[in-house]
Amino acid sequence: MTRRRLLRVIVPLLAALVLTLAVAKATAKPPASRVPLLVAATAVPAGSVLSASDLKLQQVSPSAILPGSLTTIGAAQGLVTKVALSRGSPVLADEVEPEAAAGLAYQIPPGNRALTLAVNGVSGVAGNLAPGSHVDVLLTVSQQAAQAGQSAVPAESTVIVPDVAVLSTGLAGTSGPSAGYSLVTLSVTPKQAATIALGQQQGSILLLLRPPGDTTKPTVQIHVGGIVP
Fold first, then answer.
1. Is the pLDDT score of 94 beyond 60?
2. Average model confidence (pLDDT) for the chain?
3. Residue 200: how many CB atoms within 10 A of its CB?
4. Contact 44, 50 (CB under 8 A)
5. Picking from 62-76, 141-155, 180-194, 209-223, which range would have the lowest pLDDT averaged per residue?
């Protein structure tokens, strides 16, 4: 086959191949777009605080996105699950909530407990306590005067638990914050709770509102007849 004849055969074939490729490219469907979807990386019980290790992102088709689906780890990290999540299930906005909305238990630091005290206008600082306030717990123990007929006199007054946080205030028989409260709930350690409970059996409790940023720890005890450091 001569060179001229070979070119007459090859050139049309190349042209047909180029045309075929161009048509195929023009008619080919573009790849389906993928979007991120937040799912549970493991089974998560209801009432759990979500951490980054509980979550992962999957790339899915847009049609797989349900209404309310979350698409970033930061959108759910630190929230509390309202329902149990199975591994791989999408995390939906209406299935999680902030710790504050989930209940008082999620506002207590690890190692602490919630302790509720009944207060009045004096022991409760005249309605000036609010969640986030810090207080000292003051115990005053009285003793009966030596001679019959005399009234009781203070024997000792001391701060038994310093610098504890107020979690909530409320009215007896109700829930939620209230300006006219008769109950105050504190965040305390178990030892502090036992100290306060024992103090209530021995005398009267007053709450002392601390100024913001004050970290001093008062240790002064007041006895009848003098001050004992």
1. yes
2. 84
3. 14
4. yes
5. 141-155
The per-residue pLDDT for range 120-134, each reduced to its tens digit, is 999 999 999 999 999
E-state strands within 70-224: 80-81, 96-97, 113-118, 134-143, 153-170, 183-188, 204-209, 221-223
List the chain domain ranges.
Answer: 35-102, 106-228
Whether the Cβ atoms of residue 134 and residue 125 lie closer than 8 Å to each other:
no
C-alpha span between 98 and 13 (Å, rounded)? 68
Residue 159, token pair as written in the block? 């701060």
Q: Which CATH class is domain 35-102?
A: alpha beta
Q: What is the CA radius of gyration of the chain?
A: 35
Query: Cα(87)–Cα(110) distance, rounded to whole angstroms?
Result: 27
Full-prediction pTM beyond 0.90?
A: no
227 with 220: CB under 8 angstroms? Answer: yes
